[in-house]
């Protein structure tokens, strides 16, 4: 038996896809994240009592709120189910039971991006402030983001990078790491970047309005399924028109077989019937394949699924342009880690978080333009 493997209750295992944070080591006092295989959720250790209590309060307050802006935040974080107690290595510990964002992904590519130049909270000691300020300084102070860890699948295999790798990165190195993570070193997958941006724009819109919280040492978790991406995207390029002009490279989703022009036609059709865009919260949308199958009366199915719901539009806008959300169920951007969330001071925006979020968006937008 691997000595790093803790003694766990039946049905509970180590979360092998954890890319950042405390991990199980030879030091049995260290707790990493777990997975409940029986119900498909992840278990995050409570941590220090004061931090765990603060994070628990954050989740519970969101569950109970009637404030429309706070209810909107629920779309941007993993679902919180409950607090539970488990015996690990013969001792009881408290865990948060949370949604597994990679559930159903065959080869999940996962990146933890810590957001903000400042990663210490208002209660931090001078020593803690100094230690945090020096961490990841080469990229954090320039971009307001840093990389504690990520894993990526490529056509060549699998790689995992920890915080030691992230601490060596400057701003250019972080940009290169993002390209590697998105399998975009040679050719950008436009649909993947657009879906990431669409979700990030929603989060940014919320931060531009909310003055309830300031988030310190919080992260954005990005996850996408490499297998689903490869199955569902094909690229046609080099086609020549009758007048000899070269057509621009265009991506088409093989699941719904809809180009951007066809997706726009679907959007126009829906607007004629509804008179408005159909906005669906992240993670709860109809797949555009389901929309397309209903709309075209096509008998083909995707992954054995035969739609029964009435056709609804599953396109969204990125920079005022219609884009396919076919990848939405395979691409996730969620805010995580809320042990250092504090009430906003002086009714102010969280400019520390917004700075890092804007940097990440700018990097992805630049990938599309190149």
Give structural notes:
The chain is of the alpha+beta class and 370 residues long. Helix content is 33%, strand content 24%. It is built from eleven helices and 16 strands. The strands form five sheets. The chain has a five-stranded antiparallel β-sheet, with helices on one face. A five-stranded antiparallel β-sheet has the order 8-7-6-10-15. Helix 7 (190-207) packs antiparallel against helix 11 (351-369). The termini are far apart. Mean pLDDT is 78; it is low at 235-251 and 273-322.
Q: How are the elements arranged and paired?
A:
Blueprint (H helix, E strand, L loop, with lengths): L11 E3 L19 E3 L4 E5 L3 H16 L3 H6 L6 E9 L2 E9 L8 E8 L10 H9 L2 H7 L1 E10 L2 E5 L1 H5 L3 H11 L8 H18 L5 E3 L3 E7 H7 E4 L13 E4 L6 H15 L13 H9 L18 E4 L2 E4 L6 E6 L4 E3 L7 H19 L1
Antiparallel strand pairs: 1-2, 2-3, 3-5, 4-5, 6-7, 6-10, 7-8, 9-16, 10-15, 11-12, 13-14
Helix pairs in contact: 4-6, 7-11
């Amino acid at each position: 038996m691997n000595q790093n493997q803790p003694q766990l209750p039946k049905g509970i295992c180590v979360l092998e896809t954890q890319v950042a944070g405390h991990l199980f080591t030879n030091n049995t006092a260290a707790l990493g994240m777990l997975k409940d295989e029986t119900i498909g959720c992840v278990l995050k250790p409570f941590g220090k009592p004061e931090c765990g209590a603060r994070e628990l309060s954050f989740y519970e307050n969101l569950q109970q709120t009637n404030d429309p802006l706070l209810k909107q935040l629920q779309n941007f974080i993993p679902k919180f189910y409950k607090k539970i107690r488990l015996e690990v290595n013969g001792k009881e510990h408290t865990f948060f039971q949370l949604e597994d964002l990679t559930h159903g992904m065959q080869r999940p590519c996962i990146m933890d991006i810590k957001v903000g130049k400042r990663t210490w909270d208002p209660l931090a000691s001078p020593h803690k402030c100094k230690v945090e300020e020096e961490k990841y300084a080469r990229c954090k102070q320039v971009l307001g983001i840093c990389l504690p860890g990520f894993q990526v699948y490529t056509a060549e295999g699998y790689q995992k990078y920890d915080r030691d790798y992230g601490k060596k990165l400057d701003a250019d190195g972080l940009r290169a790491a993002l390209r590697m993570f998105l399998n975009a070193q040679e050719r950008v997958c436009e649909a993947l970047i657009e879906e990431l941006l669409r979700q990030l724009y929603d989060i940014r819109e919320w931060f531009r309005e909310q003055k309830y919280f300031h988030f310190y040492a919080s992260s954005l978790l990005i996850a996408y399924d490499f297998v689903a991406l490869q199955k569902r995207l094909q690229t046609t390029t080099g086609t020549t028109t009758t007048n000899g002009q070269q057509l621009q490279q265009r991506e088409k989703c093989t699941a719904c077989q809809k180009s951007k022009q066809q997706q726009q036609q679907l959007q126009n059709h829906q607007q004629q019937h509804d008179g408005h865009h159909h906005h669906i919260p992240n993670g709860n949308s109809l797949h555009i394949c389901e929309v397309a199958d209903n709309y075209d009366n096509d008998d083909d199915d995707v992954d054995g699924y035969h739609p029964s719901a009435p056709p609804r539009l599953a396109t969204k806008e990125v920079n005022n342009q219609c884009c396919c959300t076919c990848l939405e169920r395979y691409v996730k951007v969620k805010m995580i880690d809320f042990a250092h969330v504090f009430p906003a001071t002086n009714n102010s925006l969280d400019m520390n978080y917004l700075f890092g979020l804007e940097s990440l968006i700018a990097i992805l937008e630049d990938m599309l333009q190149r």
